């Protein structure tokens, strides 16, 4: 008993000492993430609360508008051994970062309770697990979405609903194009995402461990042909539109600039889209078309914060992740901009406190989570290279350099080599 009391006193003294040290020491935590201006403002607001409760702690931000620029900079900093203390990452880079020894294993903090995941489903915790360690915890849950101009859809007599089949969506697409000239943007620049969803719709996974999960190139050809038909017939935006803008950047998406009525987005981008639309039209959000929706749909981690293995302040970084996971106040501020909270009790708690576009996001994720199949395991090393190769080949298809069939076979052969090499 005396030993237990002594241990408790020692821990209390250590905690007090740690708090005192932080209070007396001026600490600047470097943080990096990508996303919209809306995400930046909300994230900076919760971090201001953290600084208020931790005197002497301030933040240095590195904010990028898109994942590509962010990932390139993180790779550059990693090569120089200068990663930020806390930075945003995703499934495509997780295994690579872990194998390079760049990430802090969060397991000890989970076991001590400093990072409380008791209200988080184990399947979600496992999304950050590599081997015996847990290296990130997702900020929230997310799903693919069709964000659309609901005003135009209503004026054209088109009903947009959850679980539209591809035929229903294609009919809607052509109807609106014929009546208004407005096009769609089926995630141009991120074609591997569409291939993944179509593969799932057909009963496959895009990846099976460290190899392709599809038996041949036919699904690749189907997707390439879809884009070619759309650009040729006029109902899909042309690749020329992306010469001066970056795909995936919400602020310059064709839905915002007015050249299309429908775009593929992440569910948690509802707030950012609504802010940019600024009452020009009513925003709608529904699930991606699928002939077998339960098979095709999935809920993914929105994005996650990872901690550099070299940080001098792991406890502070862990506390930030813990607050994003478990703080009601922080999640009311975030309003699902980083995804629907992974803590079930927090998610239920904020549903009634959000309004406007946030409800579109939460309702869609809630629906898809009840009408979906498990997400694919962690992306294998080489998935990012596969994605880049897919975009390059689609561009050649759309400019008439090669046929969809030729591009599909090239992609299938290249992907097999890329994945097997890793």
Summarize the structure.
By secondary structure, this protein is of the alpha+beta class.
Walk me through what this model shows.
The chain is α+β, with helices and mostly antiparallel strands and 422 residues long. It has 2 domains: 25-140 and 302-369, D-Maltodextrin-Binding Protein, domain 2 (3-Layer(aba) Sandwich); 142-299 and 375-421, D-Maltodextrin-Binding Protein, domain 2, CATH 3.40.190.10. The chain has helices spanning 2-24, 37-53, 67-79, 91-99, 107-112, 122-125, 150-155, 166-180, 191-201, 218-233, 254-257, 270-277, 293-296, 314-326, 328-334, 344-351, 357-370, 383-398, 404-421; strands at residues 27-34, 57-64, 86-89, 129-130, 133-134, 136-138, 141-142, 144-149, 183-185, 207-208, 211-212, 260-266, 283-286, 300-301, 304-307. The chain has a 5-stranded mixed beta sheet with strand order 2-1-3-15-6. Strands 9-12-8-13 form a 4-stranded mixed beta sheet, sandwiched between helices. Strand 10 and strand 11 (211-212) form a beta hairpin. Helix 18 (383-398) runs antiparallel to helix 19. The termini are far apart.
């Amino acid at each position: 008993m005396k030993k237990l009391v002594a241990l408790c006193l020692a821990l209390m003294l250590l905690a007090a000492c740690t708090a005192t040290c932080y209070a007396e020491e001026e600490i600047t935590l470097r943080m990096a993430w990508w996303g919209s201006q809306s995400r930046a403002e909300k994230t900076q607001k919760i971090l201001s609360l953290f600084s208020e409760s931790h005197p002497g702690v301030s933040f240095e931000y590195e904010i990028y508008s898109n994942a590509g620029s962010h990932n390139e900079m993180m790779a550059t900093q990693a090569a120089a051994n200068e990663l930020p203390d806390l930075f945003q990452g995703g499934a495509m880079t997780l295994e690579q970062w872990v194998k390079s020894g760049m990430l802090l294993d969060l397991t000890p903090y989970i076991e001590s309770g400093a990072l409380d995941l008791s209200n988080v489903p184990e399947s979600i915790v496992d999304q950050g697990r590599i081997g015996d360690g847990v290296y990130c915890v997702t900020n929230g849950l997310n799903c693919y979405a069709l964000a659309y101009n609901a005003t135009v859809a209503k004026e054209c007599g088109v009903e947009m609903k959850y679980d539209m089949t591809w035929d229903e969506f294609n009919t809607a697409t052509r109807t609106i194009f014929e009546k208004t000239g407005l096009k769609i943007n089926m995630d141009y620049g991120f074609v591997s995402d569409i291939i993944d969803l179509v593969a799932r719709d057909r009963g496959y996974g895009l990846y099976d461990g460290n190899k392709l999960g599809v038996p041949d190139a036919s699904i690749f050809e189907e997707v390439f042909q879809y884009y070619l038909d759309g650009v040729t017939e006029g109902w899909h935006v042309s690749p020329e539109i992306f010469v001066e803008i970056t795909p995936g950047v919400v602020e310059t998406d064709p839905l915002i600039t007015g050249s299309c009525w429908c775009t593929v987005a992440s569910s948690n981008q509802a707030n950012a889209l609504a802010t940019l639309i600024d009452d020009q039209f009513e925003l709608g959000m529904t699930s991606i078309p699928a002939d077998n929706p339960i098979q095709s749909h999935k809920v993914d981690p929105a994005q996650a914060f990872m901690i550099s293995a070299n940080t001098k302040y792991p406890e502070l970084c862990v506390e930030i992740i813990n607050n994003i996971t478990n703080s009601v106040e922080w999640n009311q501020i975030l309003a699902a901009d980083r995804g629907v909270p992974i803590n079930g009790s927090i998610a239920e708690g904020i549903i009634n406190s959000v309004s406007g576009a946030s409800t579109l996001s939460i309702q869609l994720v809630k629906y898809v989570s009840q009408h979906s199949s498990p997400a694919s395991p962690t992306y294998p090393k080489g998935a990012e290279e596969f994605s880049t190769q897919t975009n390059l080949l689609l561009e050649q298809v759309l400019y008439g350099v090669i046929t969809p069939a030729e591009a599909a076979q090239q992609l299938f052969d290249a992907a097999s080599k890329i994945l097997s090499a890793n």
